[in-house]
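Posted in: Structural Biology > Protein-Ligand Complexes

Title: Requesting predicted complex, phosphoric acid mono(formamide)ester in pocket

I'd be grateful if someone could produce the 3D structure tokens for the following input. Sequence and ligand are given below.
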Amino acid sequence: MKRDFVAETDFATKEIDRVFELCAAMKNKKIAPKPLAGKTVGCIFHKASLRTRISFEVGIAELGGSSLYITEKEIELGKRETIYDAAKVLSRYLAMITIRTFAHSDVEQLARHSEIPVINALTDLLHPCQILGDAFTIIEKKGKLDGLRIVYLGDGNNIANSLINLARRYSIKLVIGTNPGTLPDQALVKAAQAEKVGSVEVVFNPKEAATAADVIYTDVWASMGQKDLAEEKAELLKDFQVNDALLRLAKPDCLVMHCLPALRNAEITDSVMDGPNSVVFDQAENRLHIQKAIMLVLMDQKLLGT
Ligand code: CP
Ligand code: NVA
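-- Reply #1 --
Done. Output follows.
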């Protein structure tokens, strides 16, 4: 049975640990597998992308394969024909699909009907490749995930939701500092709180959230597809800016993270983003290594060891 990576919860904790091991082995050039030799991966992008698209395309080449960049114009997914029909046809040509789009349910449908692995390259709900890469970065810097106070400040968007899913796999202490008008997905919060692997707390006071943080993570206040809400969200979230005053409340060795692209001096100041606590460009680099590891295990599932 083929496997997909549409949500963080598609992998068990042990499987994610294995992805981290393979990621480190490839990053350190201990292994250089070519599971995509002679194969093509379809990269469907309905939204802009710098990091995700380029790291996938480079990663596919490094794994020995070819990539095909497909925009909305070419296939009009779900409009020109059903997602079911598109999934069946794409499965006859490609070895794997990675897709960035709006509705999470479109990616779930594509995965359900494809006979090849489907990887979520960001939806309005989740950004799982990002969060696995970020978790790997945290482990590189702190040696662990479990027990860390990871504070997300800002809009309750796909990044916040994916961090919540991370708390369903690792015993992190996740604190979401946001406005009552910009909450993360409530079903995911409830699921994480019921499962009690990590803890998830939503607070409305940015100072309370940032206090004693091991990691402070932020993201744009208006995500792709929501730019018309930018002013409204900026007003709701202005107290959640990651700046020097807020960072002083965290632990001295607190990591500052941002998935990028950033709107500098809105959700994060230049001084923090370019300061000594920031690991934003390490995060960006690790997108390449983690996606290679995700593609590797989906092409060769026995590597997952489960
Ligand atoms: N972090 C991230 O996914 O960046 P892009 O939107 O540029 O791919
Ligand atoms: N929340 C952002 C993340 C971009 C990588 C967005 O969806 O636009």
